[in-house]
Amino acid sequence: MAENSLRIVVERNPSESKLSELNIKCWPKWGCSPGKYQLKFDAEETCYLLRGKVRVYPKGSSPATAEYVEFGAGDLVIIPKGLSCIWDVSVAVDKHYKFESSSSDH
């Protein structure tokens, strides 16, 4: 059951002020071409998609249940630590990302 408590949070079109407050333009960039990717997140990731379209299927869900989270260009996404999932990328992704450090001395 714990697997189901791992929720992806998507904020559509966050404000410019929020993006600059997070200093997103200084975050590293990552991209991938369309395809399916098996991913496991060992740390919480916050990412901002510059382009692309993704459907994320949490591990344990089947395409038949159609349990997925969809996001794309202009979305700010928080992916929880410990999530195993499949990224089904329909449009090539280009994103800024940041992993939360495990220390709590921010």
TrEMBL record:
Residues 20-97 form the (S)-ureidoglycine aminohydrolase cupin domain. This is (S)-ureidoglycine aminohydrolase cupin domain-containing protein. CDD domains: cupin_TM1112-like (cd02227). InterPro entries: RmlC-like_jellyroll, RmlC_Cupin_sf, UGlyAH_Cupin_dom.
